[in-house]
Structures are given as C-alpha cells and as structure tokens.
Amino acid sequence: MIFTHPLENEITGEVVDKFIKLHQLELPRYRRLRELYESRGPILEQEAKDEYKPDNRLVVNNAKQLVDSYNGYFIGIPVKATHENDTAREFINTFSNSNDLSDKESELSKLTAIYGHAFEYVYQNSNAETRTVANDPFDMFIVYDDAIERNPLFAVRWYVTDDGYEGQLFTESEELTILSDGKDTILADSKPVYYGGVQIVEWIENEERTSLYEPVESLINAYNSVLSGKANDADAFADAYLAILGAELDESGVAKIRDNRIINLYGTDDASKIVVKFLDKPDGDTTQEHLLDRLERLIYEKTMVANINDDSFGNASGTALAFKLQPMNNLAINKQRKVKAAMSKRYKLLFNIPTNVPTNLKDEWQNIEYQFTRNMPRNLADEAETAMKLEGVVSKETQLSMLSVVDDVIKEMAKMEAENKEPEVYDFEKATD
Description:
By secondary structure, the chain is α+β, with helices and mostly antiparallel strands. 43% of the residues lie in helices and 17% in strands.
C-alpha cells in the first residue's frame, strides 16, 4: 500500500492519526512474513491432533534460504560509490567508513527482500555528525504527495504507549513530536532540519513492494505440511498394530508377545486358520517424494532464485553457470535500479548539509557513480585477459573496473602512477659541493 496525501492540504494531528491507523492494517502482513523468515510457519500454529496420533511440525526454512542466498548474490560484495571530485569522494569514503555503510546497505537489502520495502533513517548525532540506520516497516512509513512524481511529503516513526502512541513526524523543513492519548493526536516541539527533503528514504524490492518469497508463500507452507505428514507416516509405521486372527489371547499372552517378541499359539483345531501379521498402512512414499521435489523446484523457479544446493551447480562450466544464474541476475538488475535510486536520494540529503560538503558541491550527488558486483565465482584469468584486450580501447579506469580484485579503481590508479614514477637519483658530488 502506498500512502498519498494532497500536496496543498495541511498536515495535522488528525491526518497523522488517519495514516497511523492505515499503517496498523499492514502490520499483520509484516508479522506473517517475518514469522516465515524466522522458521515460525503456520504449521506450528495448527490445532493439535488427538493424543494417539503422530503430530510432527517440521519447518524447512525455504524463506530464509531464498532471502539470504539472493541477498548474498546481490549485495554480498559491497556497492562502490565513487566521484571524480576529490572533496566529494573523500566525504563519501568517510561517511561509508564511519557508518559501516556496507553492513547497513546489506541489511536494508535483506529487509526489502523480506517485507517488500524498508527505510533508511538519516539523522545528526550529538556531535553533529551525519548517521544512517536501517529500519523495518513495522514502526515507520512515508506519505507521498498526490502529484505525478509522488515525492515524499512526510514520514512517521511511531510506537505504542500505555495511553495511545507517540512518535516523530518528519517533513522537508522540520521534525515534530507526535502525542496521542487514543482520542486526540497533537503535533508539538517543532525543530528545524536542513536536509532539503524528508530525511527518511524508502528502499523497495520492486514497484509493487512485494516480498521476495510472498508469491510462493503457499508453496512453502505446502512443503512443510507434506514433510510433516511424511514424518507422521514414519511414526505410524514404527507403531504399527499386530493383528492376530483365529486365536484368542489373554492379557498375559499379549504381554509376553510384546516383551519377549515371541509368538507361540497352540490349542486350536486348525492352526492354518490362525493369521498373525502387522497391519500395513497404504504406502504413499513415492507420491510424497514426487510432490516434495515438485514443490521445491517451483519455489526456486517462481522466485527466480538459483538453488545452489542443486548437484548440477557443482559441475557447471563458466558459461553453463552464467545461464543457470541468468534468471536471478535479471531479478537483481531490476532491484539494482531501485537500490541505486534510494542511494541517490540518500546522498542528495547528505550533500545538502554544509558541514558534509561545501555549498558549491551540493548538487554533485548527481555525479556519483555506483558499481554493483554480483557475488559469484570469478575466473581471474578470464578477467585479466579481458582487461588486457581493452588496453587502448577504453580508459584505464574502465579497464581496471573489469577486475574483481580491484576494490577502489581510483586508489589503484594512484598506486600505479606512483610505481611508474622514475626514482630520484642522489647526486653525491653535487651534494658535497
């Protein structure tokens, strides 16, 4: 759900209260998705079976496997942000190091895969240093204007109290405190902000804001149900009933058979009519195995995430591996555009603070270049050969960017330049004169 509000309308306590109530309607969905990621599937909440029946509740955490595999592939190698201007580049590097930005960006990407979207909160700490933190959608949301571009109008961060709720309201120019007693909502304690925009940035998985595994949620639940039923069948087989037909046993006879595992029946006129056997339950093992295989295949196929546990991955050549990863790469390309847009919005806010970059560089966020690298097996020999073939065809910077071992192309070029300088020759005679 995307929240919108008319641009020309005032933002009042009643307006904020309306959107908080709308946000509360989304919370059950977030909880359901979180529980699935944390191995707390619906099968654990099913009504208990009769005491004499096996009741296994097995959960295979396909949701976590999908998210962690895809997130590692997409952003396991941190995104490189570079700028041609030395001052801008120095700030980007300093901000990245002081905020552990690679970890924050990985967490934001994971949250978007789980919930469909997440939020990055930019703020100034007590030392007037710009900081950023990843925030899930449970207690935060953004309201956009109703114009065609859907620009952020205001954002809310809230939490429940004994009487109602409290929180913060963020607009382009100020931050206010939200106070509600369950009946009336007021906005108070206004203080100015200087980011030039709402200081909450939304990261989205896709335009529809759907979770990575939400489309296959029913398949994941069905997989757990079938596997649990299979475990129940195994327990039922272990407790199979022994049928004795044509002979009567007293309690002591039953006890002896159970304890000694010996059956000795006599005293009947026709022993051929005595039947002793275990009752067999219909065997559905083959059907269950076929269903489990199909469910697992569909889960990975419909999410477009490669199943790295597949045996075929171990023997795949470079080209074959690329084809196997192509669907996931297509998915990552689409997400990359969304993530790049979110990063640009973040740096737009950061470059508007004069203590971060000089005022004359406030628009240079537009010239930041982002390099995304897929986390997959690399053939350094092929990379080196490709880079060599580009000699004289492209710039040295582009040539070096083809090598996965080069983390910072600009620094690497500086090192190469320093190495290529001719060493100074010390003139002893001139020095003595």
